[in-house]
Design brief:
Strand order of the largest sheet: 2-1-6-5-7
CATH topology of the largest domain: Alpha/beta knot
Distance between the termini: 31 Å
Shape: elongated
Number of helices: 8
Strand content: 15-25%
Radius of gyration: 22 Å
Keywords: Cytoplasm, Methyltransferase, S-adenosyl-L-methionine, Transferase, tRNA processing
Organism: Sphingobacterium bovistauri
Function: Specifically methylates guanosine-37 in various tRNAs.
Catalytic activity: guanosine(37) in tRNA + S-adenosyl-L-methionine = N(1)-methylguanosine(37) in tRNA + S-adenosyl-L-homocysteine + H(+)
Number of domains: 2
Bound molecules: S-adenosyl-L-homocysteine
CATH superfamily of the largest domain: SPOUT methyltransferase, trefoil knot domain
CATH class of the largest domain: Alpha Beta
EC number: 2.1.1.228
Largest sheet: 5 strands, parallel
């Protein structure tokens, strides 16, 4: 799976993809992540990519030309399944969206800055708008990294069996059960006996109960869905 991320701050995206599971996925050739500097597509000598908003008001607006040039160049090289704009007024990211996107082949992600991007970019090019939550960040880079991480770990072959994504929270509509490792007792705090029993059927039953109880307590809305 291939991601092309368009940003004015490429260096902000170096670290998130250079470690752990995301790094491994790229080394294995399962995913490719290409970061493009929007300023390379600026249409003026100053390499600026933003301008004052029509109608006045505070904040700068990212212009259509640089985004259009970069998107069209990418589209001339391959077909894209989605062009995603990271934006607080988009659909809030959840596991279902990540699952769906993990089946795609080529995705472009646009990172906004300042006040955001010219509405025409959204109307003409963007096929999906995703928010990472009801708060406003200064740029779309961290949200883009979050979306890529959520997707890539779901692609078959990326995670090893021990970290299988299928047992994670939300995958079956429930939160995950509590987890423990050695020591079995720490300052009088014991791991639940059942987990030390070796009885796999009972352990699974306990985990199911815990998942349900935790979901009922913390996220009853998931059960209503
Ligand atoms: N004026 C916009 C916010 C702009 S913030 C508004 O009120 O909706 C600048 C950029 O940061 C946005 O263009 C977007 O790409 C990114 N961004 C900020 N918060 C985000 C969020 N919660 N989810 C996804 N992207 C976000």
């Amino acid at each position: 799976m291939r991601f092309d991320i368009i940003t004015v701050l490429p260096s902000l995206l170096e670290s998130p993809f250079a470690h752990s599971i995301l790094q491994r996925a790229q080394k294995k050739g399962i995913s490719e992540i290409h970061v493009h500097n929007l300023r390379d597509y600026a249409i003026n000598k100053q390499k600026s990519v933003d301008d004052y908003p029509y109608g006045g008001g505070s904040g700068m607006v990212m212009q259509i030309e640089p985004f259009a040039l970069c998107i069209e160049k990418l589209q001339s090289e391959r077909d894209y399944d989605e062009i995603i704009y990271m934006t607080p007024d988009g659909t809030t990211l959840n596991q279902e969206i990540a699952n769906d996107l993990s089946t795609k082949k080529n995705i472009i992600i646009l990172c906004g800055h300042y006040k955001g991007i010219d509405q025409r970019i959204r109307d003409i090019f963007v096929t999906k708008e995703i928010s990472i939550g009801d708060y406003v960040l200064s740029g779309g880079e961290l949200p883009a990294a979050i979306v890529v991480d959520a997707i890539v770990r779901l692609i078959p072959g990326v995670l090893s069996d021990e970290t299988s994504a299928l047992s994670d929270s939300f995958q079956d509509g429930l939160l995950d059960a509590p987890i423990y490792t050695r020591p079995a007792e720490w300052r009088g705090h014991r791991v639940p006996d059942i987990l030390l029993s070796g009885n796999e059927a009972k352990i699974n039953e306990w985990r199911d109960e815990q998942q349900l109880a935790r979901t009922r307590e913390r996220r009853p809305d998931l059960l209503n869905d």
